[in-house]
Fold this sequence. Notes:
- The protein is mainly alpha-helical.
- Helix content is 57%, strand content 6%.
- It has six helices and two strands.
- It has helices spanning 23-33, 37-50, 55-63, 68-88, 105-120, 124-137; strands at residues 6-9, 12-16.
- Helix 1 packs antiparallel against helix 2 and helix 3 (55-63) runs antiparallel to helix 4 (68-88).
- The mean pLDDT is 92.
Amino acid sequence: MSGSHVSLSPSGPPETVLLREPFAAQRALEEALSRPGPQCRNALSEVVRRWPQFLEAWARLGEHARDTVEAYACFRVGYHRGLDRLRQSGWRGSGYVRWQHPENQGFLRSLAGLSSTAADLGEQDEAERCELFLHQLDPGWSPLHLRD
């Protein structure tokens, strides 16, 4: 990933937008999400296997996980891979990563999933840190963003 994708603004913190996923990966994700029940989860797993850096695929796999522990693991992978991708895109630990940019949604979806599954597992401190981080990255963050 080359070049900086951080916009500098005199009116506020910089904003980072991740690079778009390959078209084939996006199409495979759409197709997987159109399948019913367990077929969806299996198809999502295949998308992650083929494109392991595809953040939204990790988040969606977490949303279709068999249990909370599996969901937590998927969301955590998406979150950590997302931090790597943000850094590669010029993010330096602060600034906005907004939902309004479709390229950022996989990372934010992973972070939101990590927050909710951490709470489900009794890790309230982690859940609260993740929720605070979501609002720092996108002050307009709302769980309503996650509805399709």
